[in-house]
């Protein structure tokens, strides 16, 4: 049996731009997607902590170390610069492998610079 598992996450990134007139997607700093194990073109879920909106789109690689988190196209209507978002990628894994699989969880500061990397999440307050 295949299970759909969380494989990589960028936690509480700050939206730097919302560009309605761009072909849809999310542009993310290359350093962050590399650390989270997310690939350009990969489908991701975006959760907006400010308004509760959830959406899916695909990733465009942004300039490394730029801190860019830009929602493009129609997705730009669901975010504002300054909003905090969680970016989650998923994968399909055989059940026996899913039990030992470790996701890549990236925590960032207000400038979208990585401050911590983990392979698990615990219940509780944000960092």
From TrEMBL:
- Entry's EC annotation: 4.1.1.11
Cofactor dependency: pyruvate
User: What note does UniProt attach to the cofactor annotation?
Assistant: Binds 1 pyruvoyl group covalently per subunit.
Tell me the GO BP annotations in alphabetical order: alanine biosynthetic process; pantothenate biosynthetic process
Q: Which reaction does it catalyse?
A: L-aspartate + H(+) = beta-alanine + CO2
For the keyword Cytoplasm, the answer is yes
Keyword Lyase included in the entry's annotation: yes
Q: Name one GO cellular component term.
A: cytosol
Residues that bind substrate, according to the entry? 57, 73-75
**Pathway it acts in?**
Cofactor biosynthesis; (R)-pantothenate biosynthesis; beta-alanine from L-aspartate: step 1/1
According to the UniProt entry, which residues carry Pyruvic acid (Ser)? 25
- Say which domain of life the source belongs to: Bacteria
The entry describes its oligomerization and partners as:
Heterooctamer of four alpha and four beta subunits.
Q: Which family does it belong to?
A: Belongs to the PanD family.
Protein name stated in the entry: Aspartate 1-decarboxylase
